[in-house]
């Protein structure tokens, strides 16, 4: 399916009002402009059609592999990009400027599938899986959430038993991005002692199915599904040996949430750009609506929030590179980025008046997508509680 929107020209521009480019290297700017060009060619002309038809464009996986969107911070020798975290953030920002579902595909593959194999896997696992995932030959997914355990993944019921020459896996995961199309799944399950471990489950293993989740009004160009394990025999060499406990999946989520913080601001940048352009063109009361103070207030506040979030994200990227970023700092940026983006999508939608509710413009799609982004990888309130616990030393989860 490649239904291009008629006469669609992606005119996105990103004026740098605060000279934030001074914080970037020439390599960062080159990466950003090449991903921006890719998004203008391969995503924005088609995305409204894909979202409308609830279609995941399989072919994008290989293309993401070609531009280095999978695992940008993983070393080159393992099929990653060997880049820093600012580069990773910029790639996520540009892809989500196109669509949050497309960014979800890329960040799940890089941060939630490649990263745990890289950080917790054996040398054999790294060699077997990472180059194929990095190139987009294989697509992966990350199974943590279960029907009865979302915000509280530590309560998971999925479990495995040691059967001597293999593990026997039973249970179910739900809301899993990429699941229906994935070649492999990194699955978090408890052993007989109740300790959480990661297992690599491959499509085709007996008893393993990935039913698709239908009826989503959000992330419609991303495929979501369940992972169902019914006496799946998992070879022992598929257990990730180097880390166990809830901290293992949480370590992956830190990386992915960093990407979300940047990505959500990409969606906000798209909404702001569209609103500014529309406000200058749309005439009411014989004047462009951009001449009215109330519209200018909206635009000024959008730009201010985007700029503040970009600074927060940049600083977080630096701390990630130095290995100093804490989970609570990442929570702050994820939570802030998504909230800023949701507010801007709503305000931008208003500036477009009635036209804002159509697929002629991107805001409604961004707004609906962001309703998933504000919930997944830790809900808005859970991130607030992570910050609250960090500030006070008192966890308020229970
Ligand atoms: C489109 C999409 C894609 C996803 N992709 C993946 C994926 O690839 N892999 C994966 O493992 N998961 C994935 N998820 C799951 C996602 O991470 C969970 O939906 C999320 O963690 C919330 O869990 P829940 O939906 O069960 O909500 P619940 O945990 O039931 O929360 C419901 C509400 O209760 C609130 N709440 C819960 N506990 C507390 C508390 N202690 N204090 C205050 N409020 C609380 C929450 O903030 C929320 O508002 C995806 C979800 C969506 C929607």
Bound molecules: flavin-adenine dinucleotide
Tally of helical segments: 11
Output the CATH topology of the largest domain: Butyryl-CoA Dehydrogenase, subunit A, domain 3
What is the ordering of alpha helices and beta strands?
A: HHHHHHEEEEEEEHEEHHHH
The CATH class assignment of the largest domain is Mainly Alpha
Strand coverage percent: 5-15%
Q: Percent of residues in helical segments? A: 40-55%
Low-confidence stretches: none
Bulk shape: globular
Strand order of the largest sheet: 2-3-7-6
Helix and strand content put the structural class at alpha+beta
Give the mean pLDDT: 97
Strand count: 9
CATH homologous superfamily designation of the largest domain: Butyryl-CoA Dehydrogenase, subunit A, domain 3
The main β sheet shows up as:
4 strands, antiparallel
> Structurally, how many domains make up the residues?
3
Question: What can you see in these coordinates?
Answer:
With 398 residues, the chain is α+β, with helices and mostly antiparallel strands. It has three domains: 20-135, Orthogonal Bundle (Butyryl-Coa Dehydrogenase, subunit A, domain 1), CATH 1.10.540; 140-238, Butyryl-CoA Dehydrogenase, subunit A, domain 2 (Beta Barrel); 247-392, Butyryl-CoA Dehydrogenase, subunit A, domain 3 (Up-down Bundle), CATH 1.20.140.10. Helices cover 48% and strands 13% of the residues. It is built from eleven helices and nine strands. It has a four-stranded antiparallel β-sheet with strand order 2-3-7-6, with helices on one face. The chain has a three-stranded mixed β-sheet with strand order 1-4-5, covered by helices on one side. A two-stranded antiparallel ribbon has the order 8-9. A hairpin with a 5-residue loop joins strand 4 and strand 5. It is globular and about 80 Å long. The termini are far apart. The model has no long low-confidence stretch (mean pLDDT 97). Flavin-adenine dinucleotide binds next to strand 1, strand 3 and helix 11.
